Amino acid sequence: LAASAGIVGAPGTDESHMTTTPATVNFSFHPGATFTGSVTLNDENGDPVDLTNYTALMHIRREPSDEAPLFVLSTTNTRIVLGGALGTISVEISADDTAEIDVDEDG
Question: Which residues in the chain belong to E strands, given as ranges?
Fold first, then answer.
């Protein structure tokens, strides 16, 4: 499965103009198991990026070219949690949701 994600600053903040170009990342899921992941976003000096007042959105698709996502994760639906000044981005997909993934012959 592939995910594309973006982070956007909250309107009215100094960073309101900041967006990231969506990145494509490959994930492996096990149907019926909870998926969790966490990364730290660092600046060019290796320091954590302060994500306070930011929102995040991630679409997970079987293939990057698929139009409809299997899952939509966001800070709004609490499937993505941003760690503020720590720069962490944590995601979670429940076991019930991963159980709904149709596994094809390619996995």
Answer: 2-9, 23-26, 35-40, 54-61, 71-74, 80-82, 88-93
- In angstroms, the CA 79 to CA 66 distance is 21
Low-confidence ranges of the chain (pLDDT < 70): 1-24, 104-107
HSE-up of residue 58 (Cα within 13 Å, Cβ side): 25
Q: How many CA atoms lie within 13 A of 88 on its CB side?
A: 7
Provide the pLDDT for residue 1: 52
Q: Look at residue 23 in the predicted model and tell me its pLDDT.
A: 63
